[in-house]
Amino acid sequence: MLGWRLLVSATLIPLLFGLFYLDQRAGSSAPWLLGLCWLLILRGTWEITQLLTVRNLKPGYPLVCLLSLLICNAAWLPWLVPSLQTGANDLQTLSLALLSVTYAISVLLLFLKNAIRFQEPGQTMEILGAELLGVSYVGFLLATLAELRWVAGPQTGYLALGALIISAKLGDVGGYTFGRLWGKKKLVPRLSPGKTWMGGFGAIFGASLGAWLWLQFTPSLFNDSWSAPAWYWSILFGAIIGVVGLVGDLCESLIKRDVGKKDSAELLPGFGGLLDLLDSPLYAGPVAFLLWKLLPLVTVAS
């Protein structure tokens, strides 16, 4: 199973970065990334609504999917409408504002829908909670993750997004490898019996190594005036993403454990569903955005 996981990862990651290459050449509007986000939302909202269709939880897939798509599209609007493109910094501020307001309106619409459909006590709050979770977990977090495409301006390209994906997924690989080879003491046995403390250390090591390699060799590919940051900033970024990604994995396990499922879906043997692949990047996305604003992750030539 370890070999299969490594093989699938070695296949999916180059395909993903091939798409990123095409999107980079298409300009700052990032049409290929937008299309990928649509596909991820269509599949991801289906998985989470299916997961949560238990007990009194009966979330509606069409509405959760539609609102998630609206949140994503709202975030893209400044990059697609020429009349809004007054400046790079203003564009990201506007993008984040539209994302946040659309998410807030989505919450209001979900409350309204459930208020209109209310019949009797005992079910409405469960359905509303499941739908809010679906829109938040897939729509809002994915749109926030995509904001890394422009976090340092249009020239950021896939430097920041690539750093997150490489860190998070190498953290997953490191955690799985260390856990399988040397893991003994369980980390959170009731929530995720397969997670060990040694696996946690492996996640931090893998994520730190991935961040250092990516930020050491790729900044100049995205901007001629950029060079690698000091090694300790790269390691710090990776270590934080490793920890947060591990927590994201555990939080997705919380959803699955509570509804009595092992995987979010049967998409890839050994990996589970799409949400099992996206758990750590989705959870770490907002943290990565904040780190790019706070840490000197590129050095600008004078």
UniProtKB/TrEMBL annotation:
A GO BP entry: CDP-diacylglycerol biosynthetic process
Entry EC no(s): 2.7.7.41
Transmembrane segments: 32-49, 61-81, 93-112, 132-152, 158-176, 197-215, 230-251
Alphabetic keyword roster: Cell membrane, Lipid biosynthesis, Lipid metabolism, Membrane, Nucleotidyltransferase, Phospholipid biosynthesis, Phospholipid metabolism, Transferase, Transmembrane, Transmembrane helix
Source taxon at top rank: Bacteria
Protein family per UniProt: Belongs to the CDS family.
Official protein name in the record: Phosphatidate cytidylyltransferase
The organism of origin for this protein: Gimesia chilikensis
Lineage: Bacteria, Pseudomonadati, Planctomycetota, Planctomycetia, Planctomycetales
